[in-house]
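Handout, section B. The chain below has 234 residues.
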Amino acid sequence: MQDIKILYVEDEVYLGKIVKESLESRGFRVRMETDGMAALPAFREFEPDICVLDVMLPKKDGFAIGKDIRDLDENIPIIYLTAKNQPEDVLKGFRSGGNDYIRKPFSLEELIARIRNLLQLARGKAPATNGQAAGDEIPLGRYTFHLLRYELRLGEQVQKLSHREAELLRILAEHRNSTVERRDILRRVWGDDSFFNSRNLDVYIKKLRDYLKEDESVEIITLKGVGYHFAVGG
């Protein structure tokens, strides 16, 4: 990841400094801006590979910046950072050109995993069209997961997903053919790893297994005491 350039826009200076230095310690090149109005000139000058934008910014919010960046480059990955967690906020983020949406507080490992995942998708995917963000369609065996529309498709069959079902499936897709820890899923989807939410996760995993049962090459494997391994063949 040594050559990867990240445009990072964050007005919380203390948080921004920690994230910037942490990313740089991993070999990323980071340009940080704290003012929304400075983001677009920085984008033109720095020519980043990926943008990480806080939503709540002075003078110009992250969604507006994302739209401007998407007008200049329809394929560059954009990640939004926000404390907001309502489904309508998530949809607004995708509609403004975003590819991913991370709730604060977040771990550095989560941010790096999302950055790497989006860069991999960008390298292997055709340009965005019809206003859809690049990376909206995620192939999972014979299925296609439409992230923006909250749909799981198999041929002509369409399974509509709830917000949490879509969030859970997205996390599993990010870790396809690898393991994701149960507590990480709980913190990202529900905000904490309480016993009550843990039981909810069991219910949602069962639902996703039912939705994916038509393709035997796609399997959610429970690793007791650890988490899940999302096996995707073909």
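Note. The two ends are 27 Å apart (CA to CA). Compare this with the example in section A.
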